[in-house]
TrEMBL record, chains A, B:
Keyword Glycosyltransferase recorded: no
SMART domains: CoA_binding (SM00881)
Pfam families, alphabetized: CoA_binding, Put_DNA-bind_N
The name this protein goes by in its record: Redox-sensing transcriptional repressor Rex
Keyword match Transcription regulation: yes
Gene Ontology molecular function: any one: DNA binding
Gene that this polypeptide is encoded by: rex
Entry keywords, A to Z: Cytoplasm, DNA-binding, NAD, Repressor, Transcription, Transcription regulation
Source species: Streptosporangium subroseum
Record's subunit section: Homodimer.
Localisation per UniProt entry: Cytoplasm
Length: 235, 235
DNA sequence: GTCCCTTTGTGAACCGATGCACAAAGTGAG
DNA sequence: CTCACTTTGTGCATCGGTTCACAAAGGGAC
């Protein structure tokens, strides 16, 4: 039983690797545009901002697509990563909540660039419903289930206020959607098998603030040991 | 030498913990609003969508703020986490690039909610400069250095096109900014000591697509072993 | 063909993060 | 005061991910 070759590709690519593949893909596309035919793991790693050993291990999970002494064929690797990520097919995306953020997303070009097609915009506000944005008609949230089914939507982007997000999520899950990108600042409770990814601006800023504080603390000599425990800070 | 108490807080909170503190904080704020006085690690963990052992270990890195047999005092914990994250001070944020996304961010309320204040909007387009958005005047990118200094900006949000991001980053770093939140789809090259966090819609969608593909593959019986290696897919 | 040079693919050590499971600490009833 | 009960804080095993470092593979010169 020779499983050597497919062994790596067999059963699951590490999550950390999956998260980096889009990065490699972007770097490779840039190189393809500049006419590069092959690239070494070292060069690609630099372009993607990772260490070359990590890059090679990541790629090895897809298969053995490099040539020792030469590197990787740019076009071929683009194709393999695209296929692995599922970008060779077309994904219909619905954006629910067409406010400030939803509008920006709908108008975003980089969306379509790679296999993703905004297939529907939905909102609850009668003022917004009927608007034409980025060539699409904003439909009423009551139509949610029908629209998802009719357009074959498989990925939903949630850009509603936090209060509405859970409820909308439940509805789209009920129609069979299992991939959600959530911009609302809430923890969504979803059944097993549904993938949620969240983008949370506020959390990112708080993480930056934490490190920023550490940096400036260090400058000013850090908090004096005595002060650090102000002893019963009453609230 | 009694270091027991401060020992945990000594030297660095794990990065993974820092990333979850904002989540706990949000859950705690909700509880405080609903009038809860204390909360057990179990309840808080559920609200934040994590496992309770992890929550307790995370909190133990800040200090020993719970009461065995009772739980955590909600108000006190809010205070401690806020302090740790640096949210007790006010952070001036500048948004560079006031297009679709920059506008949405500028108008975003949840921004201000926690210590973050949008102190400046900057753009290169003469059409946009001078616009009034969310009570702020959009200033010209030429003023970047002056504005950052004058307003005491310590966190910069990059919402320019990808092509401009690196150049803008270099300029703000040169004036002393060391915390950047980047929305442009590029890997920024920055010197040691500068913290970059990136938000990349396209990457999130690609990760979702990967898992979605796996799920549907499974449904349809998965790719047949024979097909899996189409043997020399020529490009 | 042989030899040298480059670069891949991966075994193995390491490191940080997770989650179990329990002793220690505290509450409250009687 | 004692006892039963609750819940924290953490030691420890485990796991996934990172990095090093090198043998194996391939290319090209001659
Ligand atoms: N604007 C930003 O930069 C930003 C940044 C980070 C996070 N967010 C989050 O993204 C979400 C949207 O932000 P925004 O600034 O666009 O808010 P917004 O108020 O401008 O837009 C929300 C839209 O959702 C619609 N809506 C409300 N309930 C709905 C429902 N049940 N079904 C469908 N649509 C519904 C509203 O009619 C409105 O058009 C919020 O949760 C916000 O916290 C926004
Ligand atoms: N719109 C989205 O939903 C979205 C989503 C994900 C990522 N992004 C990324 O965010 C960035 C902004 O997206 P957008 O849709 O707002 O684009 P946009 O073109 O609407 O806005 C970009 C703005 O940046 C300004 N700008 C250009 N060069 C500049 C410079 N050197 N200095 C200062 N300002 C400059 C432009 O004048 C314009 O106003 C892009 O990199 C995009 O890829 C956008």
């Amino acid at each position: 039983m020779i499983r050597r070759l497919s062994q790596a590709r067999e059963r699951g690519i590490p999550e950390a690797t999956v998260a980096r593949l889009p990065l490699y893909l972007r770097a490779l596309n840039g190189m393809a545009e500049r006419g590069l035919a092959t690239v070494s793991s070292e060069d690609l790693a630099v372009a993607a901002g990772v260490n070359s050993a990590k890059l090679r291990k990541d790629l090895s999970h897809l298969g053995s697509y490099g040539t020792r002494g030469v590197g990787y064929d740019v076009e071929y690797l683009v194709y393999q990563i695209s296929r692995e990520l599922g970008l060779t097919q077309d994904w219909a995306v619905a954006i629910v909540g067409v406010g400030n953020l939803g509008r920006a997303l709908a108008n975003y070009g980089g969306f379509v660039s790679r296999g993703f097609r905004v297939a529907a915009l939905l909102d609850a506000d009668p003022e917004v419903v009927g608007d034409h944005i980025a060539g699409l008609n904003v439909e009423h949230i009551d139509e949610l289930e029908a629209v998802i089914r009719r357009r074959g939507v498989s990925i939903v982007v949630l850009a509603t206020p936090a209060a509405a997000a859970q409820q909308v999520a439940e509805r789209v899950i009920a129609v069979g959607v299992t991939s959600i990108l959530n911009f609302a600042p809430v923890v969504l409770a979803v059944p097993e098998g549904v993938d949620i990814r969240k983008v949370d601006l506020s959390i990112e800023l708080q993480i930056l603030a934490f490190h920023e504080q550490r940096k400036t603390d260090r400058m000013t000599g850090g908090p004096a040991m005595a002060e650090e425990w102000p002893e019963a800070v009453d609230l």
